[in-house]
Amino acid sequence: MLLTQVAAGNRDAFAELYDRFAPPLYGAAMQILRDTAEAQDVVQDAFLTLWEKAATFESSRGSAFSWAVTLVRNRAIDRVRMRRRRSELLAESVPEDLGYLAGRLQAGGDESATLGDEARAVRAAVALLPPEQQRALELAFFGGLTQEEIARKLREPLGTVKARIRRGLLKLRDSLAERL
Predict the structure, then answer these.
(1) Residues 6 or more apart whose Cβ sits within 8 Å of residue 49
(2) Which of 124, 117, 127 is nearest to 180 (CA)?
(3) Measured between alpha carbons, how far is 114 from 42 in angstroms, rounded to an integer?
(4) What is the Cα–Cα distance from 144 to 10, expressed in whole angstroms?
């Protein structure tokens, strides 16, 4: 049994397990996530777990493949839930972060015009940012990605992504303080 050999630290057995399981596991992750990068991350994470916890596998509870599919499925569902929760938190926090009350979003004519002017000012300030800062902020605030996810997606060091987001936010703050 391959998983027994993997538990003993046999890298060749792990490579064979990967060759057998990776395509269908990736397919399962893609069905749930519909995102290539996230599906790849989930499958990689599942294989890491298989490598680290192979000794805990009990064949009486099912096949190695069913265990691997369960790992991928659970991780993929967790990602979908995390995405959904991030979107909800963003939707809840954006009005407060901008200093608006929820009721003000259903504003009358004068207030709607003010909100429109402010939105134009924000768009203009964002347009003045360097493209790499724009992209990092877009992925963080509108894509709902964490800084680590942005770093992976952009293939940039995490520190670089953090610095771009911070600098971009500081520039936006300074630019908008003058306009608003």
Answers:
(1) 71
(2) 117
(3) 44
(4) 39
103 and 111 Cβ atoms separated by less than 8 Å: no
* Residue in 44, 42, 41, 68 with CA at minimum distance from that of residue 54: 68
Retrieve residue 110's tokens: 């004068």
The sign one gets for the Cα dihedral 142, 148, 153, 159 is positive
pLDDT tens readout for residues 99-123 = 444 444 444 555 455 556 676 777 7
- Tokens of residue 161, six digits: 């992504």
Q: Which two tokens stand for residue 32?
A: 């749930």
- Other Cβ atoms closer than 10 A to 10: 15
User: DSSP label at 32?
Assistant: H
74 pLDDT band, cuts 50/70/90, is very high
Q: Which residues does 111 contact at the CB level (< 8 Å), separation at least 6?
A: 104
